Amino acid sequence: MNTSRKVILVMGALFCFALFAGTAFADAKLPAPQKNGGDGIFGLLERRASGTRSDFPKGEISAEELSTILWAASGLNRGGNGWTVPLAGGRPPYVKIYAVKPDGAFLYDWKEHSLVEVTGKNILGDITDDDFVKKSPCVLVFVTDIGSLGSMSRLNGGNALAWTASGAMTQNAYLAADSLGISGRYMVSMKTGAVASELKLGDADTPLCIMPLGKR
Ligand SMILES: Cc1cc2nc3c(=O)[nH]c(=O)nc-3n(C[C@H](O)[C@H](O)[C@H](O)COP(=O)(O)O)c2cc1C
User: Distance between CA atoms of 175 and 48, rounded to whole angstroms?
Assistant: First the structure.
């Protein structure tokens, strides 16, 4: 094969790879989270509440607001040496957060502070029976990542540790969201089978809870 044919073949292969990579991985770096200002912690604690089911706000959540809420829930802090929530043995987060929005479902990558696309489909109608959740502009889904627990998964199969972490994560999300004028609601009711299949979860991972969000 002559050199120009080889060049054309290599360029063709690179083009196909770029095309595939572009469609398969619609990853997005999140804007920097808000790390100062906002409402004081004691005022936030004084008024913390779940958004009401019958009147749940439906206002859009901006990329900056989502970035801040996800960072509050399990982002890196202390110059990259810790996380915003306490984790058993100081292990990396063993609860994953997915952001489910009308434009698709995305896994939060706390290392890169980015979103990794899992599906470009709107799955909001599939994962819940609650109308107000279906209409929410963004629903966070908390899922165990038992593999990340390593040897610590022997403690109650890791699930007790994951539930504890999800409580701290969602409380941080409640408070950060409220400071941004966003309501959230911690919920265990969801269609777990649909969540598992639409988010392509592994056999070991269990959906724990969801948190619809809406700007007031
Ligand atoms: C473990 C747990 C599970 C919950 N599951 C649901 C749920 O499935 N559906 C729902 O609408 N609210 C759910 N909630 C929200 C509670 O109903 C809500 O926190 C409670 O009514 C108190 O309201 P507050 O958060 O405004 O104080 C849950 C809360 C907790 C702590």
Answer: 7
What is the per-residue pLDDT across 153-203, written as a single tens digit (0 to 9) for each? 887 778 999 999 999 999 999 999 999 999 999 999 999 999 999 999 999
pLDDT of residue 92 exceeding 50, the answer is yes
Q: Which residues line ligand 1 (CB under 6 A)?
A: 49-50, 53, 185-189
- Per-domain residue ranges of the chain: 26-215
Report the topology of domain 26-215.
NADH Oxidase (3.40.109)
Average per-residue pLDDT in the chain? Answer: 90
Distance 185 CA to ligand 1 centre (A): 7
Its pTM stands at 0.89
